[in-house]
């Protein structure tokens, strides 16, 4: 891992796990946008964003590319009673659509997002189908 990236992670109190195939940094939701702004300034490029339902919280995962063959995943968690995170769309414009997808399927609202509307479901949908609490009205089989 590059020294400048390690410094940025340390400034935002992110914990780094390099035990797996790709390094993973965990950061608080309050430091989420600031860390990404610093990493973008260092030349890391946005690859993708998604979420995982951890029952008591929704974990956001953002993949960044530091070179064509090296990536870093940055993770944060939003507790179920506060599904809010700062948008990354002002740092990484392509994150706009991924954040809308996470909102539509998991219910996480990205503060400061330019168009926090549904992207896959109808505009009047009231459910988030990738949450573990989601129940089907009827069993399809």
Characterize the biggest β-sheet: 5 strands, mixed
Mean pLDDT value:
91
CATH superfamily of one domain: NADH:ubiquinone oxidoreductase Nqo5 subunit
Helix content: 10-25%
End-to-end CA span: 48 Å
- Strand portion: 25-35%
Largest sheet strand order:
1-2-5-4-3
Please write the CATH class name of one domain: Alpha Beta
CATH topology of one domain: Beta Polymerase, domain 2
Question: What is the alpha-carbon Rg in Å?
Answer: 16 Å
Strands, count: 7
The helix/strand order is HEEHEEEEHE
Structural class by SSE content = alpha/beta
Please tell me what the overall shape is. Answer: globular
Can you put this structure into words, describing what you see?
The protein is an alpha/beta fold and 141 residues long. It has a domain at 3-81: Beta Polymerase, domain 2, CATH 3.30.460. The protein is 22% helix and 30% strand. Strands 1-2-5-4-3 form a 5-stranded mixed sheet. Strands 6-7 form a two-stranded parallel sheet. β4 (57-67) and β5 form a beta hairpin. The chain is globular.
In short:
The protein has 3 helices and 7 strands; from the N terminus they run H-E-E-H-E-E-E-E-H-E. With 141 residues, the protein is of the alpha/beta class. The termini are far apart.
Descriptors:
single chain, 141 residues, alpha/beta, Beta Polymerase, domain 2, 5-stranded mixed β-sheet, 7 strands, globular
């Amino acid at each position: 891992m590059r020294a400048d990236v390690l410094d940025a992670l340390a400034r935002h109190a992110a914990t780094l796990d390099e035990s797996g195939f790709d390094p993973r940094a965990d950061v608080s939701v309050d430091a989420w946008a600031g860390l990404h702004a610093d990493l973008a300034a260092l030349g890391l490029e946005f690859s993708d964003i998604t979420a995982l339902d951890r029952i008591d919280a929704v974990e956001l995962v953002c993949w960044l590319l530091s070179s064509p063959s090296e990536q870093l995943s940055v993770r944060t968690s939003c507790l179920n009673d506060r599904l809010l995170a700062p948008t990354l769309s002002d740092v990484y414009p392509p994150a706009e659509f991924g954040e809308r997808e996470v909102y539509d399927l998991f219910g996480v609202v990205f503060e400061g997002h330019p168009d926090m509307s549904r992207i896959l479901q109808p505009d009047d949908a009231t459910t988030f189908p990738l949450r573990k609490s989601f129940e089907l009205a009827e069993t399809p089989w």
